[in-house]
Amino acid sequence: MALVVQKYGGTSVADIEKIENVARRVIDIKEAGNEVVVVVSAMAGETDRLVNLAHSISEKPDPREYDALVSTGEQVTVSLLSMTLNKMGYKAKSFSGHQIKIVTDQSHTKARILSVNTEMITDELEKGTIAVVAGFQGIDMENNITTLGRGGSDTTAVALAAALQAEICEIYTDVDGVYTTDPSLCPKAKKLKKISYDEMLEMTSAGAKVLHPRSVELAKKYEVPVHVRSSFNKDEGTLVTKEDEEMEKVVVSGVTYDRDQAKVTVIHVPDKPGIAARLFTPLSDQNIVVDMIIQNASIENYTDMTFTVPRKDIDDVRKILKIAAKDMEAERVEFDENISKISIVGVGMKSHAGVASRMFAALANEGINIMMISTSEIKISCVIEAKYTELAVMALHDAFGLEKE
Amino acid sequence: MALVVQKYGGTSVADIEKIENVARRVIDIKEAGNEVVVVVSAMAGETDRLVNLAHSISEKPDPREYDALVSTGEQVTVSLLSMTLNKMGYKAKSFSGHQIKIVTDQSHTKARILSVNTEMITDELEKGTIAVVAGFQGIDMENNITTLGRGGSDTTAVALAAALQAEICEIYTDVDGVYTTDPSLCPKAKKLKKISYDEMLEMTSAGAKVLHPRSVELAKKYEVPVHVRSSFNKDEGTLVTKEDEEMEKVVVSGVTYDRDQAKVTVIHVPDKPGIAARLFTPLSDQNIVVDMIIQNASIENYTDMTFTVPRKDIDDVRKILKIAAKDMEAERVEFDENISKISIVGVGMKSHAGVASRMFAALANEGINIMMISTSEIKISCVIEAKYTELAVMALHDAFGLEKE
């Protein structure tokens, strides 16, 4: 008998009929002789409805109250799913974050899980009950309700799977796995059978939106095997798991892109110790996430600094840099919102030479100019003109033979 | 500095604008130098929405899950009201039933409060915070979410007022107090300034719907003064309080009616010990509330039994009595759905003679036939033909001079 943790997202529980579909899937796993813990999100649209209520009161609603408000979305779904399972003749019980004591820190709207008390769930599983757990929410040490932020329900599922030492954590979503690239952009994209935690992390941080990086980090830390699959069919999805030899044979596993960045260049800065801090501290103080950073080699004690920021933050960045650039005695600041970041990801890079040059050649062959380059152990990213995004994805998908099984 | 508990019903918090009105009223009381605890219901329509979701799954949804589901309605309101108070510059915190540990028994959907832990609220009040508490909900000893059933938020407010030894419990509703009778039926109806707990209890059980009997019972037990008033104006409402000499001078305080009853007569029953139990046990087993019961004097060892039941249950009653009547060897059973119960209520009855005969005379003067009579210490009820309801209310209102201050 295995313990299976399943997670269903908002589109999978969007209405009563879909909840009944989920119940049938849960029952299938239960009938196959497993213990089942199900984590669900709020019904699609419900969180938006609650957020709109909050924002009709205030642009910046009190975060403690915001969390108490939006956490009701998941509580509704767990009750409805448990009722459905009960009606279908199966013992099921709903649990909210405070009932099973998913204890988090006090960072409302983006709390981190500190501990999970599994006793209550284990007791129920032993009685043959299906445990239905509200994703996305927890409580802090003082019993205030907290929420985990984006991808929070995935994180709840992985945390429970880790704490309960589940055999597998199945993440049901509206796509049927992780693809070599975005199938809507590149029809040749293929579903991956397996991917390593690190590759998944690089893929998600590079723009693939299947899993939130936090849930992948957690899965990696506790070595929880995560199976990403569709709730609308029975196909096998993609297994996110520990790196193995087989994976290393593949040079590149996927191509991702991110069109939501903007490029900023601070030109002709006097190259003195501490300039990077003076530039980036005011940005991080405003919670602006700087992604790629490139500092050119200094010429006559002057340098240029180029970096990317989320495009949505560009107005704030302009304001902050107006002051910072003057302070640093930079010549001027240039902004380019018309960019895209293309990345190739693969654990095989570690043991294969010449991957970067193959990437650059493939882009050059299509006449695509590279504006910035950054590399990690298993990822290479290039910033290019936005209009070449699709072309670049296709070219790289071909260049690394990703259409082949 | 006084401690005031206020309760606002669903129509008073039906939308963001109404919630802002409530916030302003709360602030007025706070600014007058009081500590304030606010209890709120779900936004009007929200509980119905949730109940409909549950019933689209099952006619009889699992009660534990039903409670977990519907309790989210109040959690939404407390968050929104707290956000609003925060935005207006006041410290406010929302609390759900599990956070302040309103512990109830395990009777899902109609739980009774066993204890209230006031520590968390007292701490917050001392810091100058306005405590906003979800009505209608609690938790049982095992941390399952429970709800208190109809009138539950009133009960929460009174229980908190009792536990916190509040100076007053203000119940804001969509009517502006307790009237001598229903103003929509009798234009001469007058608002009462004061009414005793017992009178209020008899009024509510006799059909007046301002307060639920359970909250009145609780208020009586702990001698909590309850001020029933409108959330849409600033008029004084009606104070529900301990009986005093002044009240006793008034013979009758109010006239109520109940059109939702049906009359059942079991005819020619052999009069043996235990027949009442054989008749009423199967009804109470099905949770059917029998109201007035009359057993005629036995003639030649046969008797007739007449009683009233809620009209909505009449089909179930027919089925049950078909079996019970045969079992009791009764001749037949007659049903009359075309009735109304008219009651007069007043603590003054205890010390005034001839009240009943004045009532009967007033009805007789209008040619209204009395089918059943039942009396308590401070109430006399008559069952009459339904079509005379309005006429009877007017006649009794006049007969006892209720239009006078």
Structure description:
Two copies of one chain form a homodimer. With 405 residues, chain A is α/β, with parallel strands linked by helices. Chain A has a domain at 3-174: Carbamate kinase, CATH 3.40.1160. In chain A, 35% of the residues lie in helices and 25% in strands. Chain A has 13 helices and 20 strands. An eight-stranded mixed β-sheet of chain A has the order 3-6-2-1-9-11-12-10, with helices on both faces. In chain A, a hairpin with a 7-residue loop joins strand 11 (226-230) and strand 12 (238-241). In chain A, helix 1 (16-31) packs across helix 4, helix 7 runs antiparallel to helix 8 (213-222) and helix 12 crosses helix 13.
Write the layout of secondary structure elements.
Two copies of one chain form a homodimer.
Chain A lengths: L2 E6 L7 H16 L3 E6 L5 H12 L5 H8 L1 H16 L4 E4 L6 E3 L8 E4 L2 H8 L3 E5 L2 E3 L5 E3 L4 H12 L4 E6 L20 E3 H9 L7 H10 L3 E5 L7 E4 L3 H5 L4 E5 L2 E10 L4 H11 L7 E3 L6 E9 L3 H14 L4 E5 L2 E7 L9 H11 L6 E5 L2 E7 L3 H11 L6
Parallel strand pairs in A: 1-2, 1-9, 2-6, 3-6, 9-11, 10-12
Antiparallel strand pairs in A: 4-5, 7-8, 11-12, 13-18, 14-16, 14-17, 15-16, 18-20, 19-20
Helix pairs in contact in A: 1-4, 6-8, 7-8, 10-11, 12-13
